[in-house]
Amino acid sequence: MVVVRNINNNVSLCRDGNGKEVVVFGKGVGFLRPSDQVPLGRIERTFYNVSSHYLSILNDVPQEILDFTARQMTALRNTLPYGTTANLTFILADHLAFAIERAQKNIYIPMPSVYELETSWPLEMEVGRSFVSAMEKEFGVKLPYGEAQAVAMHFINARSTHAQEAAFNIEARYEEILERTTQIIEKEMALTVRRDTFNYARFATHVQYLLRRIFEDKSIDSENIQMYESIRDEYEAASRCVDKIAVYLRETWKAKLTEEEKLYLIMHVNRVCAKELE
After folding, report:
1. Could you tell me if 92 and 151 lie in one domain?
2. Taking the CA atoms of the chain, what radius of gyration do you get in angstroms?
3. Is the separation of the CB atoms in 265 and 242 below 8 Å?
4. Coil, strand, or helix at residue 209?
5. How far apart are CA 214 and CA 205, in angstroms?
6. Do 177 and 146 sit in the same domain of this protein?
7. Is residue 88 located within the same domain as residue 153?
8. Which of residues 166, 183, 208 is at a domain's end?
9. What pLDDT does residue 226 have?
């Protein structure tokens, strides 16, 4: 890993062995010259895919706040059900530095919808409270209660962006997903599905709407969920087939089917296979 340019005494923009740019944190790495190799022992943290827009933040935010934010993000890695980018670390660090500055100057910015967020985004609010609590302990400041909401909003925005990207990807791969689910039906039900029938067209449409609902976080609100167990028992083969489809969607696309979704899929699979099984 070689230095491209120095950002501050402890941060440099580097290029790794594969030619990718990476922001490197490490004591004194900023004193190395461009084209120098960075000793592995000096590297404390690395951040890939950082937008050039956020590199300027590294000059303005105190190093201790950058380090604090990076540690907190590392600790959260297995807590969040969605991914975050390196950019979020630097956005948060900038926000936290400003929050501490405001607190020290007794400047208070009201956050009117904090209680609404408690209900709608409980995980993100818990993350916000965790950040604020850790900040107060580490930097000896007292932050207003609403600051947890401000931190939570950054994660909510990151989650929304992640969901939008996932939705775009899933729409772009719709035909692939439809074909793969059809192949699962053919294998599990030991038949060849005719793709020119009305029942298959209805199944294909259902899959398309199913994918949209999953990635928009809109599950079916059905009063027929009590039918799920009886339908599973009545159509055992179709039910096993849907279980395989659910595993495929979960493992390949991180999409979890509710029991309501499985109920409707069982019915569609049964219709698709009805003629072939006669």
Report:
1. yes
2. 25
3. yes
4. helix
5. 14
6. no
7. yes
8. 166
9. 66
Q: Answer yes or no: are the C-beta atoms of 142 and 103 closer than 8 Å.
A: yes
What pLDDT sits at residue 217? 61
Same structural domain for residues 187 and 243?
A: yes
Strand partners, 129: none
Which single residue is written with the structure tokens 């006669």?
278
Q: Which residue has the tokens 């207003």?
A: 144
Strand bridging mode 45-48 / 11-15: unpaired
The CATH number of the domain holding residue 216 is 1.10.1790.10
Q: What is the mean pLDDT of residues 37-43?
A: 92
Tokens of 266: 């069982």
Claim: this prediction has a pTM higher than 0.85:
no
Beta strands in the chain (DSSP E): 2-8, 11-15, 21-25, 45-48
CA 143 – CA 121 distance, rounded (Å): 21
State how many domains the chain has.
3
Tell me the percentage of the chain whose pLDDT exceeds 90: 33
Mark which of 144, 166, 188 sits at the end of a domain: 166
DSSP conformational letter for 30: G
The residue written with tokens 């775009």 in the block is: 168
Task: Determine the structural domain holding residue 194 and report its residue range.
Answer: 173-277
The tokens 């793969």 sit on which residue? 180
Q: Which residue has the tokens 């969040």?
A: 80
Q: Quick: pLDDT tens for 136-171.
A: 999 999 988 788 888 988 888 777 666 556 555 666
Q: What value, to the nearest 5°, has the Cα angle with vertex 78 and ends 74 and 79?
A: 100
**48: which strand partners?**
22
Largest CA distance in the chain: 78
